[in-house]
Amino acid sequence: MRLRKFTIFDIGKNRNYFSDDLNKFYIKRISRKCYLPANTKMLELIKKYEGEFRISYSITGILIEQLEKWSPEALESFVKLVDTGCVELFNETYYHSLAYLISEREFKEQVKLHRKKIWEVFGVRPKIFRNTEAMFSNEIAKIAEKMGFRGIIAEGLSHILGWRSPNYLYTSPGSSIPVFLRNYKLSDDIGFRFSCRDWEEWPLTADKYASWLSMNEGDVINIFLDYETFGEHQWKETGIFEFLEHLPKEILKYEHLEFKTPSEILKKTKPVGIFDVPYISSWADVHRDLSAWLENEMQQHAFREIKSLEPVMRKRKDLIDYWRKLQTSDHFYYMCTKWFADGDVHKYFNCYETPYDAFINYMNVLSDLKMRAGIKC
Amino acid sequence: MIRMKVLMLGWEFPPFSSGGLGTHCYYLTKSLKEKNTQITFIMPGGSERIEPGIKLITTGSMRIIRLNVTLKPYRPSLSREVKIIASETPKEVYDESFFSNVKRYNELACEIGLEEDFDIIHCHDWMTFDAGVRLKKETGKPLVVTIHSTEFDRTGGLSVNDYISHMEWYGMFHADKVITVSNYMKKRIVEKYSVPPEKIKVIYNAVNPEEFWPSEIKPGFDEKIVLFLGRITLQKGPDYFLEAAKLVLEKEKNVKFVVVGKGDMLPSLIEKSLQLGIINHVFFTGYQKDIKTIYSMADVYVMPSVSEPFGITALEAMSSGTPVIVSKQSGISEAVKHRLTVDFWDVKELANKILGVLRYSPVKNELSKNGLQEARRMTWDRVAEKTLNVYHSVLQYYM
To answer: Is the backbone peptide bond immediately before A355 cis, with ω within 30 degrees of 0?
Structure first.
């Protein structure tokens, strides 16, 4: 949900925080380049392999809202996929937010809101949980278990795993909920390196990739990607759709490889060890922690401000949705100065010229929200 | 390694000069000297009184020949009786003596240059081009020219002097290579002077960290300070500065707008601040020789130039740990990342950004910290290195 350009002169006057134009533009673009063609392909493959090809998706509440508004055809295609019975959906926080860092209560509420939305639109109740950007810790696992989830997603951090492989289920201290670890090497081979000509494995063909998978030891290989890989991060011209086309066939050639959804995996596979993450980790950036959103003074200040509004917002049904939309991790990501000078890969989606502009814009919006809530700035 | 010998035609060193040209010449020369280059530098006298004849200074491998020609790189300040009114046909405002001084400088420079021994000629801006081209023709040595600004930038396109822009073309045409201070300038040169892009090398300006660093000195009052520092002339957009000031003051009363510098627009600027009703919040300090601590005292430095080939002052501010808001129509906006930019005419957005920096201290702190680091990477040594590469690439063809 991109913010509109909101200047200091808009505070107290303009009540419209979110840019319909920008959001419409991005949603339409991504539907055209990714969701529609990729979903069509996935549907084809599911039918072709008669149920042997299975996938999972994690679709946030605000994305569903945006699709409802600007690309109902794309939403419809997701519904069709879920209806095949070969597709599992995960639960997220409704607003793709840092809600867990706001409070446990806010986190739980956003998870419940998402659960409700998924039920309304898809008619399913997700059993697997994935926090925003795979934010994970022992505590988060505990809470997810208490909320009734049967599995949880985390980044396969090598510094936690050590010599151990991400290709098994683990549990975290304090809970027994199985943790699915993303195999980031194999996932990023497609997600990041697919079209990289300098990569020694370029070009990546489906049969080559399948052979790598076949040589991996373990119970389960979790290939988790940004869906936008198919058509956006990797443009059509790179051959990503052809790769996708051939992938199931090549993988299914191997007797010991099969596609399964997480719930199905849970039926047969048990956790084999402990995955101890006392501090919150994520899949973001090379650091795989919270630094993509909370590293510099601007991000920390903005987050503290939004967090401090919780008590007031709980009493304002008319404002709480705005408050929650302002918790979306993207806003903080845009304020990141870490890679700024190097020409950030996410600039493609960043409508701000600099992280400083992102911060000023956000703070102006926040000032207006505070004013509406009767808080003196 | 054989020492390279450079004959440089350029400008009086600070503090006798005004503007980035003098600073550039001084630091470039100094850094080149440290890279085993021998420089003979022929410059006109600035405001210094010199005896008739030629003043010769030899300092190791650098000889500075200061001619008895009074010349400044910029359009002289207008007397009160003469005003340029933009709506009327622009009038020529250079007086006779200015162009005759240019001529004299070039004649003398050529005479002296012919007696010097050098491998390459390097000229800075149009006033030196006549001599530079003549020297090239007479000695057969290659010529490099640096364009620091063009008539179009200096006049905002309003009253371009044909002779000057012709000289600019003339020098670039005969040069073996053209150096300029930004891609913004390179584009202008390609478009307005039909110079092929392959001939132009962009080398960004730099800043000396020993001259500009965050100082602890604080002003005597507690209002926030928004700083404008530069020539008070059309090109620098001081009128936009004031218009933004008015908008800022509508939201925030505790702010002072400080204008440091002199120029032809100063009287009209003072009048404007009266008209806008903000005179109590605007300080005109006049020209200040020592500006080292001024940047540090400001909460934000604003450079709303209509057209700025580079904008060294913004870099000086960054080097002093002060956040900068610069015009998009400038070289510096492309050269650095840790800055805020604005279209020079967009006073509302300029006010928005000023208020953003003043109100939200985290953005001020981050811009200050990151801007400082970035400014530290823009060294004159780097400029000299790149300039030397240009010399080498040109001399290759002459071997």
So the answer is: no
> CA B222, CA A281: separation in Å to the nearest integer?
43
Q: Model-level pTM? A: 0.89
Rounded distance, CA B214 to CA B322, Å? 8
Tell me which range, A1-15, A142-156, A277-291, is most confidently predicted by mean pLDDT. Answer: A142-156
> Do B362 and A8 count as a contact with CB atoms less than 8 A apart?
no
Domain range for A342: 295-372
Do residues A163 and A222 share a domain? yes
Q: How far apart are CA B235 and CA B156, in angstroms?
A: 6
| B179 plus B327 within the same structural domain | no
Active site includes A76? no
Q: Are residues A206 and A342 in the same domain?
A: no
Chain B residues with CB under 8 Å of A3 CB are none
What is the C-alpha to C-alpha distance for residues B1 and A251, in angstroms, rounded to an integer?
63
Query: Which CATH number covers residue B67?
Result: 3.40.50.2000
CB distance A259 to A251 below 8 Å:
yes
- The first and second tokens of residue B119, run together, are 């491998």
Give me the percent of chain A exceeding a pLDDT of 70: 97
* Shared domain check, B384 and B372: no
Is residue B341 very low, low, confident or very high in pLDDT (cuts 50, 70, 90)? very high
Could you say which of A302, A340, A360 has the minimum Cβ distance to residue B337?
A340
Of B178, B98, B99, nearest to B132 (Cα)? B178
* Nearest-angstrom CA–CA distance, B113 and B117: 8
- B243 and B356 co-located in one domain: yes
Are A147 and A213 part of one and the same domain?
Answer: yes
Contacts of B348 in chain A (CB under 8 A): 7, 9
Flag the least confident range among A249-253, B57-61, B109-113, B321-325: B57-61
Q: Residue A17 carries which side chain, given as an amino acid letter?
A: Y
Taking an 8 Å cut-off on Cβ atoms, the answer to whether B362 and A301 are in contact is yes
Write the ipTM.
Answer: 0.88
Inter-residue contact B330 to B312 (CB < 8 Å): no
DSSP A34: I
Cα angle for residues B57, B63, B66 (degrees, 5° grid): 60
d(CA A172, CA B342) in angstroms, rounded, equals: 50
